[in-house]
Amino acid sequence: MAFKVPKEMSPKELETRLLQGEFIMMLDVREPEEWMEGHIAGAKHIPLGNLYERHIELNPNKETIVICRSGNRSGLACELLHERGFNVLNMTGGLNAWTGDLVRDM
Length: 106
Fold this sequence. Notes:
The protein is an alpha/beta fold.
């Protein structure tokens, strides 16, 4: 892997699209503890370490926004998925840059 993220989306652009009522496939690749602390409503959770085995749970033809805390792990996930033919975008800045609401599982 040469760490080339094919496409990116800003947190603000994602939030705008969600507020407009658009259905967007989102994949959160953070660890379970991070997920429980807060995640975007509607996101699917597959930790990065499990993505290789569980990528079959995703639709390769559906645009998927990949999310982590800062944008680094999601970039790696995007590369892994892109190499397998998935249509993915990395959310730049991750949840550190997210200003919208989060769902908390605590």
